[in-house]
Amino acid sequence: MIRRGRAEGWLKLPISAFRPWAELNGVTFDGVRVGSMPGFEHRGSTVIAEEDLTKGETNPLMVVPKDLILSRESVEGFAKSDKQLKEVLDSVGEYTRTSRGAILVFLLMQATISCPDIPGNIGVTNPLTEYIKFLPEEFLPTFWTKEEQELLVGTTLRSAIRAKMNSLLREFEHIRTATEHISWCQKYWWDDDEGQVTFEDWMHVDAMYRSRALEFPGIGDCMVPCVDMANHSSGDATVALYETDEDGNSILLLRAGKVVKQKDEITITYGDGKGACEMIFSYGFMEDSMDSAKIVFLDLDIPDDDPFRPAKIAVSAVAPGFRIFDNGDRTGWESDFVWLICVNEEDGLGFNFLQTNEGGRELRAFWKGAELEDTSKLRGLLQADALWEVYQLRAITLLQNRIEQQLEDLHEIGSPDKGPNVRDVPWKLAEKLRKLELGLLERASNDLEDQKLVLIESDSVRRYLGIEDEGNAEEDFS
User: Which residues form the SET domain (predicted)?
Assistant: First the structure.
């Protein structure tokens, strides 16, 4: 939309114009600047020390006025003086009650205002209209070519990208349907001849938000110009931290005890706990020092032969999968969904229709006669049950089988050949992600096997299975 043409990308302002824009809008810098690191221009802009920053430094390196912070609340504020923005927000409805929804619609409006093919009376210009022109096109995997995405087969990133693309397409169609009745939207966004908005535009505003959103104390998820120019590093390598001051401004502070030399990079953390898949998905990179996938999320499905399968799907309020995480020497796992799979009617699970206040009927789940209002609470009920070890054994067996399936997929694909049209960055990221996820899943499978062997020897499991001595025939624990 604000592009000159697909080959030329989004209209951009040179980074040399960034500081004048920032200072004009009240941003202050103390010993730092925004620019490219010499020798690393391919990485784009970052925050760089203009002088030696010494231990014990307490003055903020950067102060960004609260009026520049892009949050759900600030979007509502902009809409008070921008009738076209308000029209869109009101028409789209509930979706824009979230930070992400409100900010994406706002970014789309700023792109509209900047589009040379749309009249200047659409939308109201504000400081952030210019800011988006400083942002690079993010190299996220949703923009990888089909051939590059094929490198991800067997990894969890492949399914994450597919789910994201489906979600973005649903959002885009919702925006279109909700705003088609607005005359200027119909003409300048959706018209076959004059319309400027495409699905690719929606992908770009999503990438802007996804790669730059920060969670600020007292504000929540938001975009903070200037601070979001800082690159990521984790652990002790993180140089600075961000927070809000007593006036609601965003400030960038040197971490206690840190010493930074002139021309060194000022880094923040995007989240030390984020796994390899999430780092590539949201930011398009992972740290070179990363030696573990950290977190892997695998989907789970309820077996087709489960008589309660439709009912379980209908009442489930939790993510249909489980999370494996690196705990150092061992791995761990978390899932609310798996407990719903491993119990059935003979254990005490039941379903029934209850009358609602509006006169309708709603399917509800029950555990041993008591209503189960939230399926995420099922684990706590099972934990208090005499057969807790039995339920654990069932869950672990299910998880182990799913992990083995994922490992088979990774081993079957192996290391794909690098095609002539595959770029180096996607190739290297896909190869490293495959290696890291393979390592974590293999460790998790071994750890689950150890847990399973312990549970098999528990008294409650042996009683449940009718095992009285070592000489009994082997049982099928699946």
Answer: 30-271
